[in-house]
Amino acid sequence: MLISETFRIALSSIRSNLFRATLTMLGIIIGVGAVITMVALGTGAQRAIDEQMAALGGDILAVESSFWFSHGVARDQQTLTTDDAAALTIGTTHIDEVVPEINGRFQVKYGNRNINTTVLGTTPNYPGVHGFEMAAGRMFTLADDSARKRVAVLAAEVPGMLDTDATGIIGRNVSIRSIPFEVIGVLEAKGSTGWRNPDDDVWIPLSTAQFRVTGNEFVERISVLVDQSSSIELAMLDIERVLRREHGILPGKDNDFAMINRKQFAESRQEATQVFTFLLAGIAGVSLVVGGIGIMNIMLVTVTERTREIGIRKALGATRGNILLQFLVESTTLCLLGGALGLLVGATAATLLNRLAGWQTVVTIDSAVMAFGFSAVVGIVFGIWPARRASQLDPIDALRHE
Hints:
The protein is α+β, with helices and mostly antiparallel strands.
């Protein structure tokens, strides 16, 4: 029998029982749709982490004060100073840039607008290390920092929060803790790095923050950009050597500072997200197997219903291979149709989650091919037994069947 004739008979059989075929495909539709949606969520999460890692720029270490414990309660211990930052600048060989930082949440006022946001005191090399670009105006300079000038650079979202725009606020004054600051620049949008949103910060010179705003000589963090020709591990050893010397820490004593590699956190999150994606896809894949069992059940019923038809076809010369192929084509066609509809359902669900819930989802060609191919495999695997059973029917017994 011609292959085309086999396909025609199989499709004709599906059309004649369209409602039952639709119900049979439902398990495959749900399974494929669930796999596509879960993988899209996982891929979107990994894509978001990749963007966060790219936003971090190069290999950056954050050096922070460690904690001390009093009566079982962790308390901050401020130990880092600008002298430590200077020592790291001149005393290490595996570091390119050193950026001391101090920050706090303060009231920022412009006209009749009053917002509470993070005010970051830092040095002029902060944007180069962390990958920021100027949208308007300029960054403050070392001279501004040394003179403790009251100048400010606004992150991208701050002008909008103050009911103005980037160009309109340049040269105007904003008040930080009732202290007037001249706005000299506005930054390009950066986007969230996963820890916080830097686009609503206000930047001021470090010395100005220490002596005019906070009254605190300590710094909360020192960001360190590792030399591209060196490794994170060598840089950490370098930092530990210099800071232990600066702080007079004796051998065997614990550090009074901590080093944090944010990219390691991001990579760990990415690995965890990938494992979680595979787990969700595996759980969703179970419904594909359940759908395959449903198809096998319906195909066995179909074989019983069409026993006399099989006997007639065998009496007219159809071989076992022809019968086997016909029922395999029917089960595989059901699964492929279900896979196509499931792909549409999954892509639609992923799009709705992105637009309505705000979750980042990405439907990839690989996931679509995987789900569609798996549905075809399910059709073949679970269709073999009914097809084999149909092909082995005795023609005489089949013709006697009522």
